[in-house]
Fold this protein.
Amino acid sequence: MILSDYEPKMVFNHFETISQIPRGSGNEKAVSDYIAAFAKGLNLAYVQDSSHNLVIYKAGTAGYENAPPVILQGHLDMVCEKNAGTTHDFLKDPLKLYVDGDYLKAKGTTLGADNGIAVAYCMALLEATDIAHPPLEVVLTSDEEAGMTGATNLDGQLLKGRRMINMDSGSVGCFTAGSAAASTAEYVLPVEWETPKKEDTAFSLTIKGLQGGHSGGDIKKERGNALRILGIVLNEMDKAADIKVSDAVGGMKVNAIPREASATIVINPAVKENIATVCKNITATLKSFYRVADPELEIILEPESMPEKVMDAIAFKKFIASLLLLPCGVQSMSRDIEDLVAASCNIGVLETNCDGVKISCMARGASEEHTAVVEEKIIALVGLAQAELQIAHRSPAWAFNPDSLILKKLVSYYKEKTGEDPKVVAMHGGLECGIFAEKLPGLDIVALGPNMYDLHTPQERLSISSTKIIWDFLCGVLGTLKA
């Protein structure tokens, strides 16, 4: 155990243990079974449903037995991203944790602190015998990152509490009190394929070196989107010469800003130098454009074996138009809350197969109406391109409530302990809180968490010192929730 000497010991012990269990979205059974066995070993009542959600019950401590329950909530799954060249099978390999100063990281992959740290906090609270608290209902959901289907499928009647602390957002001195609605749009462009000419030659075009990031929390940083950049480069090449394209791919998760993308291009050898010049020029332009947000951007053109098929001319034009015209990045800013993104869209994943091209996007909005505006832009493009569209998942917004009683209690306790006023924010990322608010009328929610950075990327890191600060705060504030 590499974390055995770090405080809080129980929290880091549980985090390191669950990091040995693969738990990407859709693969949560093993970790759910492990925590169910953990609850059983503590003689705690629990429910594990068919979606691998867990609800674990712990009675209030002495003097708190009849206090209203508090729901503690986080999610079991993690985003599975890795660096190019990293050998890691997210279906069977444990994460390789290491400490770098104050930060906990994973070698070449996402860390899974989003939201494994919430799981670890909950397990430590369930195990502890020296922390005053009201009755606890610990809710650990599955599939949050891919579509929030775990929370959607959870039976709300399992929960009596109407006060909830979500641990999937926030930082030291900052509480979250609202989150965005989201929808996943799958844009499918039918393609007619043709056989390339024998005299042609092929090259691989690769976009890499981008930072990526969380498609909610990092979208306003205006980092490069590898799929949009792929469209820009292909468009410039298409202006200069007749090119064909095959095997276009990019991105790994719809809710992660894509860091890499590639395509095979086929050209007549006579225009080879011309295409190389275009690639060099557009690379210089884009590197200048992203010099602050993504200084490590690389655009690489190198020889490739000839593909068996390429897109026909009509499909290729529609493909480029799709990458250029699909909404990407911030679409509008809030007029109610300073510095809050009101609507955005992330072009997240590009896939090609024998039938055509699928581009998966995630639209987010401060309300369902904001999200709908983004969806309408995609729908309009579908009509022009004669493509197909499926809205795979929708999740509701968690509306900001300035009169939240649990928020006021946390703010008051924080000020009492630190002498400072905490920040209260709404976030552009999606949280399961909106789903729980719909399931449980009258539910009062606040979200908190330690300092974490570069979520949904292999650069993800968790501040060790802030993990203890939030643990101490959480243990203390539970003792104030007697009524």
